[in-house]
């Protein structure tokens, strides 16, 4: 086994910097065993004999070192070199000393002081602040004041029935809440001892903005029912209340794809919802229509299709099969973050086979066919052919 290389102050700094970055959150929450000792790996007699000048320079470097912590020295009795006093290990008593060593002492003290201040006001948060080290270390004092005020007010239920902009908290507006929502939500869960799946609205009773859907009516007869309007964007419940009874409904992932649709008897098209497809289960007039979903032919597009079928079990896919994928090989792109999850149970056998092939990179790494890359003339013919099915 190769001997461990002796550590000089520069090497110790590199090692402590990695250690600080890895453990500072836990230390902020009171974890860690102290003192921390870093072995300096002094040489054996044989190693010293082979590089006496280097060992002497190493000893001199530690003799001249001035910094946090304590260097523990030991004496070695070597037959060929006599008695030698060598640095054996570095002993550090607290995280502050590691912070000072790696140039993070000021940030550590600021983060610790703020964490202690929050924990004094909200004892339940004492063990939940470590992952917010950077924010605690670098934010302005006014940001800390806003955070504590928000936690205090929201935890006692003042937000029930209000929109964010109505919160009676000085200096806090929708932009601040949106920028800090993940942090506020996580800390509120800990403060209220709430399950991990609770979001900010369910934790506080804040009113949600009504989700909007964009819908185009592709049939003049349907447009007459809404005063001749063709392109509608409205809350789900308002669209659900319309007296529409289309024969066909298209749900497309890409906005411009939906805008490219031209008149089609008895048809409407929804666009641009991504994964937010639960709203379609709230529209009663969809249940009697033939519903078609056309998304990107990639793992996420097929996952959205599977999710849609929770709410529209009879929904069919359009241009999302292996034949279409193979016919457009020259137009493939790379899916940067393919979805990896359990089997999508609501896909058909054919759709599931495509999904599994994509996740297994059977046709190449991250194969993806975006719907807008399919030549429009051919795609529109496929859309029109749905009337025959």
From TrEMBL:
Q: Which domain of life is it from?
A: Bacteria
Q: Name one Pfam family in it.
A: DUF3322
User: Which residue ranges does the record assign to the Wadjet protein JetD C-terminal domain?
Assistant: 205-381
| Residues of the DUF3322 domain | 9-189
Q: What is this protein called?
A: DUF3322 and DUF2220 domain-containing protein
Q: Which organism is it from?
A: Thioflavicoccus mobilis 8321
High-level lineage: Bacteria, Pseudomonadati, Pseudomonadota, Gammaproteobacteria, Chromatiales
